[in-house]
Specification:
The complex is a heterodimer of chains A (287) and B (160). By secondary structure, chain A is α+β, with helices and mostly antiparallel strands. Chain A is 36% helix and 27% strand. Chain A has helices at residues 7-25, 27-71, 77-112, 281-284; strands spanning 116-125, 133-136, 149-151, 156-163, 168-172, 179-184, 190-195, 201-207, 217-220, 232-240, 247-254, 263-269. In chain A, strands 1-2-5-4-3-12 form a 6-stranded antiparallel beta barrel. Chain B has one domain. Chain B has helices spanning 2-18, 33-45, 47-63, 71-89, 95-115, 123-155. In chain B, helix 1 (2-18) packs parallel to helix 3, helix 2 (33-45) packs antiparallel against helix 3 (47-63) and helix 4 (71-89) runs antiparallel to helix 5. The longest helix of chain B has 33 residues, at 123-155. Chain B is globular, with a radius of gyration of 15 Å. Classes of the chains: A alpha+beta (287), B mainly alpha (160). The interface between A and B is large, with 58 and 52 residues.
Chain lengths: 287, 160
């Protein structure tokens, strides 16, 4: 089969086959090895990724300007160019103002949230269609670790699943492989938020006797995982109470628009370390 | 020339896949550029190149995906191998033969993802909303690219 392959190629091919078969023989150990091998490669690829992400953000405006300039008459070119330049500047300023507003809101939210967070920019989407994931421009050197919660000022986003020195991968709450313990804010009933393939979320294991209603807000319970308690998840849009089932299930419309994520906060410590400790019952009873 | 092209693919394909390709998505599904590239490398460059580039690009894709760090490496190597075998044993490949080949490879790759648990408990939804649309998207793009490359390499035989 490999008659036409040269010596070096054959060695590389055998090495490749050995590495891949290692995955089957020692899956856990090889995963750690692959992660270790992959980190420098990922850091290298992160450089063009950052460039593409930056170019992508500016490409729309450049393209518009280019198309507009190509259609103008020769004698009006200079004036139109100036207009385009000014339009571009206005667009840039608007973009900056919008970013300023967004970041300001994020900072205010960060100051008020009872957790220590690291702000990160979304630089890309998952490399496959199979997972609902995003790529962040911050990683281990900024204190981000796997399993940390990711939030925005509008609600829960997901959890960190992979980290490298300067980037990380986040699995969104809309992914079927993600589960977040949550509670219905009005009734205080707990359940588990799980993603669906359509990009929505579903709350499972709601007690059968719960008086849950359409329109009830759902927040994180803070019981498991690294999500702080009370982070908004979404609003209940539909309730299924099947006969013979032990629990109710509800469709939840997420509060976060996952198609327009630009900046997020990674929760490094769910609660401030210097936050006042909860009052003990003994202290509570003091006169 | 070939090494430069491969280097360009290793350095550029994932950044394109994760950033600008989002604008070309149809109903949230983007073509898998790595799958298309590995299929065409297998066809044009041969079996060994297909397997090695499949392993490398797949591994790289795994690093920038929320899934396990082996699914893409394994599936893309198998795709490179299959495309290499097609290139070696099929007497005359045309855009019309590339379409069903990439369609089949993309479907097989999707099935591997489902076995790896990518769809959770929503297997049928995953088939309907990701596996089939992506396979069709991949095969159409691959057919177009094959046609362009076949025209190009009729004149310049540097990749074969």
């Amino acid at each position: 089969m490999f008659r036409s392959t040269s010596g070096t190629r054959r060695v590389l091919l055998v090495l490749c086959a050995l590495l891949l078969s290692l995955v089957f023989v020692l899956p856990k150990q090889s995963r750690t090895l692959l992660q270790a091998i992959g980190k420098p490669l990922a850091d290298l690829v992160a450089i063009p990724l950052e460039l593409f992400s930056s170019a992508d953000r500016h490409a729309g405006g450049i393209w518009d300007r280019y198309v507009a300039l190509r259609t103008v008459q020769e004698e009006n070119q200079q004036l139109r160019r100036e207009i385009e330049f000014l339009r571009g500047q206005t667009a840039d300023l608007r973009e900056m103002a919008a970013a300023n507003q967004r970041l300001g809101a994020l900072l205010r939210f960060r100051a008020n949230t009872p957790a220590q967070t690291v702000a990160a920019r979304v630089v890309g989407r998952d490399a496959t269609n199979w997972y609902h994931g995003i790529l962040l421009d911050k990683g281990e050197q900024d204190g981000i670790q796997a399993e940390m919660a990711v939030i925005t000022l509008t609600g829960a986003v997901g959890r960190v699943v992979k980290t490298r020195a300067s980037s990380s991968v986040v699995l969104l709450i809309t992914d079927p492989n993600n589960a977040v313990t949550s509670l219905i804010q009005r009734t205080r009933d707990e359940g588990i938020i799980e993603g669906t393939f359509e990009g929505a979320v579903r709350m499972k294991y709601i007690p059968l006797l719960s008086a849950v209603r359409v329109g009830d807000p759902v927040v994180t319970s803070g019981l498991t995982g690294r999500f702080p308690k009370g982070v908004p998840v979404g609003t209940i849009t539909n309730i299924q109470k099947d006969q013979g089932e032990l629990f109710q299930t509800a469709d939840v419309q997420p509060d976060v628009d996952f198609t327009k994520l630009e900046e997020v906060l990674v929760v490094t410590v769910p609660r401030h370390v210097d936050a006042p400790a909860a009052i003990s019952p003994a202290e509570k009873n003091k006169p | 020339m070939k090494r430069l092209l491969y280097l360009g693919l290793v350095g550029g394909l994932i950044p394109i896949q994760t950033t600008v390709l989002e604008h070309l998505s149809v109903a949230g599904v983007r073509p898998d550029l790595c799958l298309i590239a590995v299929s065409l490398i297998g066809l044009f460059g041969g079996l060994a190149d297909g397997v090695m580039m499949g392993a490398l690009l797949g591994f790289e894709q795994d690093l920038f995906s929320a899934g396990d760090t082996w699914v893409n490496a394994i599936t893309k190597s198998a795709i490179g191998l299959s495309a290499g075998l097609v290139g070696r044993y099929v007497a005359r490949t045309t855009p019309a033969t590339v379409l069903p080949m990439v369609l089949g490879l993309s479907v097989s790759s999707g099935i591997a993802f489902l076995f790896a648990g990518a769809g959770g408990q929503h297997t049928l939804t995953a088939v309907r909303s990701v596996l089939l649309p992506q396979a069709m998207f991949d095969s159409m793009v691959a057919m177009g690219l094959y046609w362009v490359l076949a025209e190009r390499f009729k004149k310049d035989d540097s990749l074969v």
